[in-house]
Specification:
Blueprint lengths: L6 E5 L3 H11 L3 E3 L1 H5 L7 E5 L2 E6 L1 H4 L15 E5 L1 H13 L4 E10 L2 E9 L5 E6 L14
């Protein structure tokens, strides 16, 4: 089976800070933010590419209530694939915004073989990997850094 990633969901505590990070530092387009802050939709999103979004669930959607033990859980990390040029621009924006690089640049294996990755965290400590593949155009449609 082959498919596309439709979306991932991050549980967030500070929606404004997270939206600012993903839109200003990662330069992702926001979706439904006005409707969210007007109380018309339950959460905002940011767009990775034409096929994939990240939903930002506010605390009221994930906090432990009564017998519901969902609580706040995070995935280990997610990886964004970029062109080499967009990766370099992101690296510079991270430095300009005083965002620490946890690891990298380091070689890592991924969907298109070996690439060069850096790891950093968003304002709520989610680990993000950003990678480029030398000589591979897999990230041409990525909106990051365009």
């Amino acid at each position: 089976m082959r498919c596309l990633m439709d979306h991932i969901v991050l549980n967030v505590e500070n929606d404004k800070k997270m939206l600012e990070f993903y839109s200003k530092v990662l330069m992702l387009e926001t979706e439904r933010t006005e409707a969210y802050f007007q109380g018309q939709v339950p959460f905002p999103s940011v767009r990775l590419n034409p096929d994939t979004i990240i939903d930002l669930f506010p605390k009221k959607m994930w906090q432990t209530i009564g017998d519901d033990k969902r609580g706040r859980k995070h995935l280990n990390h997610f990886c964004l694939s970029l062109t080499k040029e967009a990766w370099k621009r992101l690296f510079d924006r991270l430095k300009d915004n005083n965002i620490d690089i946890d690891e990298g640049p380091v070689p890592r294996w991924g969907a298109h073989g070996s690439g060069t990755s850096i790891y950093f965290r968003d304002p709520e400590d989610n680990l993000i990997e950003a990678r480029y593949y030398e000589g591979h155009n897999s990230a041409e449609k990525c909106l990051l850094g365009t």
